[in-house]
Amino acid sequence: MKEYRININGTNYNVSIEEVETSNGNSPRVVEPVKTTAAPAPAPATEKPQSEPVEKKTAPAPTAGGSDYVIKSPLPGIVLDILVREGDTVKAGQKVILLEAMKMENNIESDKDGIVKSINVTKGDGIYEGDTLVILSC
After folding, report:
1. CB-CB contact of 59 with 137 (8 Å)
2. Angle at 85 between CA 132 and CA 115, to 5 degrees
3. What pLDDT score does 6 carry?
4. Rounded to whole angstroms, what are the CA distances from 16 to 38, 50, 52, 53?
5. How many Cα atoms within 13 Å fall on the side-chain side of residue 83?
6. pLDDT of residue 13
7. Cα–Cα distance between 101 and 86 in angstroms, integer?
8. CA 20 to 30 Å from 109, out of 23, 65, 75, 118?
9. pTM value > 0.70
10. Which fold has domain 68-137?
């Protein structure tokens, strides 16, 4: 039996799925009915689970005298690793974030040269497409 926890519109559900057997190679038949139960609302935690997207820091306002370049997530996923630190010099094409999406690792690269002004995610964060990952001062 496999257990899953699913969140739909803010309500958590625990779902149990039984193994499926086939009869004579034809369509599968369910050995036991699938049971779903609504989970009680979880108590507030100090840290959110990795699988749920978390709130991101707001991007700082651009500073006078230079332009800022924002590196955004091209797809939703989970941050596996941050490959730069604030203050690092970054070259165009350099990998800055390692993102897991659909069980694949994706390298997020900088399109421009610059200095890392801020990193708006942390390792383990769930993110959406278009979320700000890193801001560079160019």
Report:
1. no
2. 75
3. 80
4. 12, 21, 20, 24
5. 15
6. 80
7. 25
8. 65
9. no
10. OB fold (Dihydrolipoamide Acetyltransferase, E2P) (2.40.50)
